[in-house]
Recover the amino acids of this structure.
């Protein structure tokens, strides 16, 4: 099954790749690998949730944060798909994801209360989604890092490295 078919099966439509808000590119190729910049969980250009994970009643709960990590992974795939589609002269980023051979590495950052230690569970939102899209090729190495603050007070940020053909 193609990546586009799996996305459709999951009810996911890739958004347009987010335009950079600084002096960087959303995704770059180096040899057979595509690296994304950190992707925030934007939906329609906005963050639905802000704040620290595990910061009590006023903070973001870990389950919500895991959903946000999934959204960040969707946005990373949008950046990868846009780059690959542009290389192919195509206007279909989802179909271009069929060029992904393997998800190599996921790096996730979780804006956390100092006492919160569940960063790996939060990043499972991204990891599980990538496995759902790419099957065994979606199994990857990963780092889950707790940080004091992320851009725009986002609870999570996700970066991907994929190998392509």
């Amino acid at each position: 099954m193609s990546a586009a078919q799996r996305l459709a099966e999951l009810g996911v439509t890739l958004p347009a790749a987010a335009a950079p808000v600084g002096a960087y590119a959303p995704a770059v190729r180096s040899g057979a690998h595509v690296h994304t910049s950190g992707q925030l969980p934007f939906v329609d250009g906005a963050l639905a949730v802000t704040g620290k994970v595990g910061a009590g009643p006023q903070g973001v709960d870990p389950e919500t944060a895991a959903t946000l990590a999934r959204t960040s992974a969707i946005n990373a795939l949008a950046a990868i798909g846009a780059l690959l589609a542009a290389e192919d002269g195509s206007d279909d980023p989802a179909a271009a994801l069929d060029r992904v051979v393997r998800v190599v590495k996921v790096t996730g950052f979780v804006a956390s209360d100092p006492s919160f230690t569940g960063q790996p569970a939060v990043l499972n939102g991204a990891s599980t989604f990538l496995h759902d899209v790419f099957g065994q090729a979606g199994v990857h190495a990963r780092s889950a890092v707790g940080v004091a603050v992320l851009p725009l007070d986002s609870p999570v940020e996700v970066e991907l490295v994929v190998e392509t053909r």
Summary: Residues 62-88 form the longest helix (27 residues). The chain has a mean pLDDT of 96. The chain has one domain: 27-164.
